[in-house]
Amino acid sequence: xxxxxxxxxxxxxxxxxxxxxxxxxxxxxxxxxxxxxxxxxxxxxxxxxxxxxxxxxxxxxxxxxxxxxxxxxxxxxxxxxxxxxxxxxxxxxxxxxxxxxxxxxxxxxxxxxxxxxxxxxxxxxxxxxxxxxxxxxxxxxxxxxxxxxxxxxxxxxxxxxxxxxxxxxxxxxxxxxxxxxxxxxxxxxxxxxxxxxxxxxxxxxxxxxxxxxxxxxxxxxxxxxxxxxxxxxxxxxxxxxxxxxxxxxxxxxxxxxxxxxxxxxxxxxxxxxxxxxxxxxxxxxxxxxxxxxxxxxxxxxxxxxxxxxxxxxxxxxxxxxxxxxxxxxxxxxxxxxxxxxxxxxxxxxxxxxxxxxxxxxxxxxxxxxxxxxxxxxxxxxxxxxxxxxxxxxxxxxxxxxxxxxxxxxxxxxxxxxxxxxxxxxxxxx
Length: 429
What we know:
Layout: H1 2-10, E1 34-36, H2 44-53, E2 61-63, H3 79-89, E3 104-105, H4 110-126, E4 138-139, E5 147-150, H5 157-163, E6 169-173, H6 176-183, E7 189-192, H7 193-196, E8 201-207, H8 215-226, H9 229-233, H10 239-252, E9 255-263, H11 268-279, E10 284-285, H12 293-297, H13 303-315, H14 322-335, H15 339-359, H16 369-384, H17 388-398, H18 410-422
Parallel strand pairs: 1-2, 3-4, 5-9, 5-10, 6-7, 6-8, 8-9
Helix pairs in contact: 1-2, 2-3, 4-10, 8-11, 13-14, 14-15, 15-16, 16-17
């Protein structure tokens, strides 16, 4: 693990900042400022590394996050842990102020935020300490309540009406399995909820969230949604339902304008959720009539909107979700008719796919001739697009420069020499 390796090299018993342990091409120095968003997805080891990178100076460290959106498996984040890390690593010399709380939401309107706040209340009642209890977010603008709809199977006309023709619409699914099933039904972007975290979309459909929940948790959800707060507090709940509640909250808060919950299969949890929404006036049923079909489906996006969505996806394309997000970015840039960004995203996508394909093979197996030629062509495209760090990544995946195929032309060789001079520690010839 890279983080643990860096921490081991830092020798925490000596309490040195990062600059005292690791040198890079910029010399020995700490970062002036360290800004980290989505801190709730970081482990204690990663948080410790951020503090070291800031030179063990609290005033150089800025962290932002929402524990209610801590949906990364294996991470159970608390802001109190950050204060403990700072105090311990600085031997009590540095203390972290209590986190600043933000209450005004500039992304989602009040109709969506009321629903999100109700989910958070259930989360905090069933799992005390899972998220900080705060006053409900205040929406900067008014807006309609979410809608919900139960349809009979994935091939229904109503489902196709919801999922097609609205170019602003993004479909969010519980996990990767649901995402693959939904891809055939939607003409737009389809993402898993974890993939979409940190992004925002104008219109969102949360598709088959509850029918995708394991059967062992279906009754737990029904009890949770029908019990009052006192009953919830006195009961113990399945630990995986805590993560499911956080995923639901994350999905709800991705929407800026229109939010629709759609279930294509009957489920105990889904029926209970729709009843709970209606009983608490948090959402309204979606009604299909001939005169409102166009209103439901006929939203068109401009080129600028497609470009902005594509940039969001491309910037977020890291980790296990990188390929699917880059695929979405490529489609967005294509619809925006932005040939420059389309080519750039396509090249990055090809790089990710190629490296993933190589990693799935035996590490000792050398590239064959066709793979070498493919790598040469991709390298030329990376350098043409000035994607130098990506070119380095391709080099690292192929092996030492000396083993590169003879097909590299003079132009590529010259540019690789430039890269070598800039990133001498990365590329050795």
